[in-house]
Every structure is written in structure tokens, then in C-alpha cells.
Specification:
Blueprint: H1 8-14, E1 19-23, E2 26-31, H2 36-45, E3 47-51, E4 56-61, H3 65-72, E5 85-91, E6 97-105, E7 111-115, H4 120-125, E8 133-136, E9 141-147, H5 151-159, E10 171-176, E11 179-184, E12 193-199, H6 203-214, E13 219-221, H7 224-233, H8 263-266, H9 279-287, E14 293-300, H10 302-310, E15 327-331, E16 334-345, E17 350-358, E18 367-374, E19 377-386
Parallel strand pairs: 3-13
Antiparallel strand pairs: 1-2, 3-9, 4-7, 4-8, 5-6, 6-7, 9-12, 10-11, 11-12, 14-17, 14-19, 15-16, 15-18, 16-17, 18-19
Helix pairs in contact: 2-7, 5-6
């Protein structure tokens, strides 16, 4: 049975159509507005308040905390400075991704670890023989993503301090009135934004402060449908959609190495000293020329999309929401991959997708065909491999 997050007391009355979905045992709003386009516009033009409390959260502490993190993640944990956040993956012994998330050096000898799925047992298993403690924070720590071009002015209003000096993927503590918060310059929208971490018992007070100050900035609550569109535009992957955790895979083809998942491959180190879980398998994969599949972006041809609809006497209709259903990709008669996440981009004014393709089809500009269903009939339209991310505004890092 799902339960409400620490913000539910405030978010539930705002969800007038009661559009909920389940996220790790919590209610997560699909949309608050009549249509999620309004909420998407808040992400790209104003400021969005997104309840991300259902993330799994762990606190790593103890004399061997750095050694422990370095034993598991594919990045070099010894280089994570106090006040720095890194995005990373961690793998099983075969070099296949278990999960992806963030690790924050809180500056007091501890690390905050976030994950999409429960990882407590996995983490503790890998901490054996080390003087380290892994504590579950998921229920005690609420999290609110404050995203969009007006997120910084809003944060400055509620804290009374400047935030233009907090770098991308950096962290520092602050106060909103009498509420202690931890702020990271992170998010899942590909835009300027922050994530606010607060004791669950103070979550409602924080929400009230942000919404009161947010009226001047066009702030509004935003649900998962709008977030899905934004994260695809930003080229950000989603577990169980763009890849499967190796813990849930039923066959070998359902497992993925970091090098099959775009940026996770670039965040995999072979120069760090630690012999992290899966390193040997990943080094062998790289020595053999890399994995057979690669993550790419796709730009779907509008002219063919339009002609396909007109052939049925229909006006072209873009998908109402992002699709998480994989569809085949072809080169001639051969299937060479699958599109895993597909959406209409309101900002770019085109259909785009994240896809897993065979390595020879990875280069930007490669022409493929994507399966598209109209009037219950499967057809194909042209698509072209495009650079990721699709949307990458300078303000994100400014």
C-alpha cells in the first residue's frame, strides 16, 4: 500500500484530479494541472517544485568511509572533495550496472548516497571488513527539487543569501527561516536547479516557505509526466526504462555495462587505485573493443511523421506524454536496436528519443527507421542519431 511523502499534506490538495502513481511505495503525482504541459513550462520558463522524496537515501560514515565508497562506485571516490556531488554507477562482479545515483561528500567525513532502488543490503555486503556504517535515511530525509531558470532567485529569497557562487554539482548547508536544509546544485531536468534535503518533520514548513516566496517567480508543483519529458530532453536515463538493473535481469541481454549507457561509461575509471566491484570485467570489455550496444539520441523525421498520419487522413498528432515502451529500430530489414524513451519536445519542436543501438550505428548522423503505430498499424519512419543531450542551456552550469 502506498503512503504519502513528507510533503503529501501539501501536495495532495493540489492534485485536484488525483493523478497519482507509485514510486518506491510512495504516492507520486503524475500531474497537478489539467495537462502536464503547463508544468513542463514551469521547468523551462519559471520554477518547478518536484517532490523527489521517494529516492532511496543512505548515510555512509566511519573511518573507512572513503575506502568503502571507492570499493563500490566506478568513479574515483578519493577525488570527491568536501561539498562536491558526483553522479555515478555501481556494478556487480560481471561489470553490469546495479543502479545509478549520486554520492555527496558532506564535508564531515560522511557521504550521502542516493539510489533509484533499495541498495542497503548490497552496500552493507560490500562494507564487510571495513570500519564503516551505512545508515538508511530514506524515510527521515525529505527531498524537493527546485528547478528552472527562476530557481536561483527563489532560493535567494527564502534563504536571504546569494547562490550564484555554488558551482554545478556542489553542496552547502543553509537555513530557510529556522529550518536547516542541505542544498545541492543537482537535478533531473537538465536545467538550472537545486535539490533541497530537509528533515522530514520540517518538510511542510519548507514547502510553505517556498510556495509563498515562489508566487513572485511563477513557481508551481510539478509531477512525473512533465519531469519525464524534461529528463529525456536532457539525455538522462531512467532505470527499468532505458536499462535494467542486473539484479532484475532475467537474461544476459537485459544487463548493461556502464559503457552501454552513455555518460556512465565516461564516469568509469580505470586509473583509480581501488579495485572496485566489476572492474576486471569492465577492463576486459574495454580491451575487447567495448560493448556491442551503445546509448544514443534520436531525432525523428517530422516530414515522414506528418506523411504517415496524412496517409490515414489524419492530422499529425504528437504523443500526449513521454513513452516508456521500447520500440524497434531498423536499418533496412535488420533490427539494430530499440528506442527506450520517446517524447515530443515542446522546446525543440520535434520528436526525440533515447535508444540502445548496436555499436556500428552509434555515430551521429546515422540514419535508421523507428517503428511508429498509427491507427493500430505498425509502420516505420526515418530517425537520425543525434548528439546528447538534446537540450543543454548555458544557465544549467552558469
Amino acid at each position: 500500500m502506498s503512503i504519502g511523502t513528507a510533503f503529501h499534506e501539501r501536495t495532495a490538495p493540489l492534485n485536484v484530479k488525483q493523478q497519482w502513481r507509485e514510486w518506491s511505495g510512495y504516492y507520486a503525482a503524475s500531474a497537478y494541472a489539467d495537462h502536464h504541459d503547463i508544468e513542463y513550462n514551469a521547468i523551462r520558463e519559471a520554477v518547478a517544485l518536484i517532490d523527489v522524496s521517494p529516492l532511496y537515501k543512505y548515510l555512509v560514515s566511519g573511518p573507512d568511509a572513503v575506502r568503502f565508497v571507492d570499493r563500490i562506485i566506478t568513479r574515483d571516490a578519493t577525488k570527491i572533495r568536501p561539498g562536491q556531488v558526483v553522479y555515478t554507477s555501481w556494478c556487480d562482479e560481471e561489470g553490469k550496472v546495479v543502479d545509478d545515483g549520486t554520492v555527496t561528500n558532506l564535508g564531515d567525513g560522511t557521504f550521502r548516497w542516493t539510489a533509484a532502488e533499495p541498495n542497503l543490503r548490497w552496500l552493507r555486503m560490500n562494507g564487510r571488513s571495513l570500519d564503516v556504517e551505512v545508515e538508511e535515511l530514506s524515510e527521515r530525509l525529505a527531498a524537493l527539487a527546485v528547478q528552472g531558470p527562476r530557481s536561483r532567485p527563489l532560493l535567494e529569497d527564502v534563504t536571504g543569501e546569494a547562490w550564484d557562487d555554488l558551482g554545478y554539482f556542489r553542496e552547502r548547508r543553509a537555513r530557510v527561516g529556522r529550518i536547516d536544509i542541505d542544498v545541492t546544485r543537482t537535478g533531473y531536468t537538465g536545467d538550472l536547479g537545486y535539490e533541497l534535503w530537509v528533515d522530514a518533520g520540517r518538510a511542510v514548513e519548507l514547502w510553505d516557505a517556498l510556495t509563498a516566496a515562489g508566487k513572485a517567480h511563477g513557481a508551481r508543483p510539478v509531477g512525473m509526466l512533465a519531469l519525464d519529458v524534461a529528463r529525456i530532453e536532457a539525455g538522462l536515463i531512467l532505470i527499468d526504462v532505458d536499462y535494467t538493473s542486473s539484479r532484475h535481469a532475467l537474461i544476459a541481454e537485459q544487463t548493461y555495462s556502464p559503457f552501454e549507457l552513455g555518460i556512465l561509461g565516461r564516469f568509469t575509471s580505470f586509473t583509480k587505485e581501488a579495485d572496485y566491484v566489476g572492474r576486471g570485467a569492465l577492463e576486459a570489455e574495454a580491451a575487447a573493443g567495448g560493448p556491442a550496444r551503445r546509448l544514443v539520441g534520436l531525432s525523428i523525421d517530422w516530414d515522414e511523421f506528418e506523411r504517415l498520419h496524412l496517409s490515414y487522413g489524419l492530422t499529425p498528432e504528437v504523443p500526449a506524454s513521454a513513452s516508456r515502451t521500447a520500440v524497434p529500430l531498423y536499418e533496412g530489414r535488420r533490427q539494430v536496436g530499440r528506442a527506450t524513451s520517446v517524447t515530443w519536445s515542446p522546446t525543440l519542436k520535434r520528436n526525440v528519443a533515447l535508444a540502445s543501438v548496436l555499436a556500428p550505428y552509434e555515430p551521429v548522423g546515422t540514419r535508421l527507421e523507428i517503428e511508429w503505430t498509427v491507427e493500430a498499424r505498425r509502420r516505420r519512419i526515418r530517425a537520425e542519431v543525434a548528439p546528447l543531450p538534446f537540450f543543454d542551456p548555458p544557465r544549467k552550469r552558469a
